[in-house]
Amino acid sequence: MPKVWLLSGIRYDPARVGDVGTLLADAADWRPLARRPAGGPSRLESGPETGTSDARPHASRLFSDWAGTVVSEWLARGLLVRDEEPTLYLYEARRPVPEERRHGPGVAEIASYRAVVAALGVSEPAPPRRVESLDPAAVDPMMPVMKAFAVDVAPVWGLFAKAAAGPRRTRLDEILAGTVEQGEPVLAIEAGDGSSHRVWRLQVDLAQELADILSQVPIAVVQGGLQVEALRRLAAQSPDGRVNGVPPSVLAFLTPCDSPADAGETPAILPVHRLLLASSRLDAAGVERRLSAYFRLIDVATEAEAPASLELVDAALAQLGRARDEFTGFVLYLGGGRVKVARSKGRMLMENWTHPLGRTTWRAMDVNVLHALAFERALGIGLEASRLHAPPLDVEESAPGAIERVDRGEAAAAFLLPPPSPQQLLTVALDSNPIPADSVRPWPPIPAGLILRWRRPS
């Protein structure tokens, strides 16, 4: 099992910076902005966006802070404070779900979660498993980034199963539910839009107890798998298995996958939809014809006299959600208000396939059936393009956005899915069958800047 360690966190001082919630960034945005400055690793310096004169200390300004000079300056100015004694943190987030993202079964108006903020070990023999596929070509460029970047800014998001804690499950429940005495939060923010952030710094003995429990359960990384893989390879290349003189680990937000839906302990997983771009040179009729060989395409009807496209898509997604235990499939939008539910009809084919779809755990997820059976088999899209959403595929977060892109001719068809469950994500990771990249969107987003830590001894 991956090792979970305590850390000496660095965090904003609310008394100096005000509303910390307005200073946080989305951890998923960190990688595209991480670029090595000219001069290589011997001349690490802050990027052009990290000047600190009179500007708000927004966490995104740390995305190019290779040498940690901005963090050091903010510490010196008292904008940040460092907890010298290592511990774990308990973070509670609550945030309304944007209306355009609420199309799909089980998507609530407000989502919340409770996460353990820790250092997660990534070295052999038991690194955390990955939920999503990686672009192999992206790992090598990320390795020098992970070696050179001075500060952990953007945490990874990991899932664990409380049930795996065995007899210590009750204690784990108590800690996550906040029923254990932890004192006042070191951060408590209530925003006008219903968002909130609360952070507790756990007492050291309680933090060590929690770290020991989590080190005995399997953990799957949902967001940040590229960071984990790059750091794992760096450690494998080192004679002593260390990176920069310390055991390799990443800053992680860890949440349970098997809590009741109303417990508020796991982020909501929002739908991510797919588009077949017009560059594929397939029109709607061609898509429908090819898919019909592998799927039953069922027209969608509603009680409305002249339903809008979005109403039909909502009805289809609801129908798909109700039938989740009966079959796997997706909603197909072909433009001009044409909506169909695609129901897989190739179970015998899949069960005898020497493909991951031959495995029950993998076949049970709609996203895998869509990619393997629809994209790769029916539409003839290459494996790499399918797994990485490369052209002629693209992703779209909102159902209205997907419909609009088809109707204006940018895409030939949209493939809309309900989101996977947290339990499904952990299961496919432990089964070593990652799902296609960019398939999972947590809500509220995992924040960058809430807790920082030095990657190297400071």
TrEMBL record:
**Disordered: region residues:** 34-57
Q: Which InterPro entries match?
A: UCP033563
Q: One of this protein's Pfam families, by short name? A: DUF1015
Which PANTHER family does this UniProt record tie to the protein? Answer: DUF1015 DOMAIN-CONTAINING PROTEIN, LMO2823 PROTEIN
Instruction: State the protein's name.
Output: DUF1015 family protein
